[in-house]
Design goal:
alpha+beta; Alpha-Beta Plaits; 6-stranded mixed beta sheet; 4 helices; 6 strands; binds flavin mononucleotide
Length: 137
């Protein structure tokens, strides 16, 4: 089984900050070593991240995400155990708001963000749409 947990958090970092880029370097190699994959979207100071992988490894990654001082207000949107990964081969893909807007997507689709499960499903649909039209890096 593959575990996953999408969450959202807030940050003062901007996508072009050096620190922002560095945030992604460490996790990518850690995720790669632990068979963890996912998608990180940053828009208007809000991170949404989908993280998925084996249970024990995911617990380690979750702790790293929680302990990071680069963001705050981490809120888990859902937790699930499924048979397949959503972002196979992507050890942490990145989307930034200049290209595509999650907030626009959620508004157009009428996703109720106060309804956690529906919010998580909307976030996944948005990320999958980016993932399906981009190549891994
Ligand atoms: C938005 C965000 C996403 C992160 N994603 C991951 C991840 O996917 N895997 C991981 O091991 N750590 C992840 N981390 C944690 C970082 O790898 C790293 O431990 C942390 O940024 C270093 O601590 P600091 O931010 O307090 O300097 C993430 C951190 C942030 C802010």
């Amino acid at each position: 089984m593959v575990r996953n947990f999408p969450y959202r958090s807030e940050t003062l970092l901007q996508p072009h900050d050096l620190e922002f880029r560095m945030i992604l370097e460490h996790p990518r190699s850690r995720n790669s070593n632990m068979a963890v994959t996912g998608y990180l979207h940053c828009e208007d100071g809000i991170f949404h991240q989908w993280v998925e992988g084996p249970e024990a490894e995911l617990r380690i990654v979750e702790r790293c995400i929680y302990e990071s001082r680069s963001h705050y207000g981490q809120t888990i949107l859902s937790r699930d155990a499924v048979s397949t990964k959503q972002f196979l081969g992507w050890h942490m893909a990145l989307g930034v708001s200049e290209k595509n807007s999650l907030f626009d997507f959620v508004a157009i689709q009428g996703v109720r963000t106060l309804h956690r499960t529906e919010y998580a499903a909307g976030v996944l649909a948005f990320m999958r749409a980016q993932f399906d039209t981009t190549s891994p890096f």
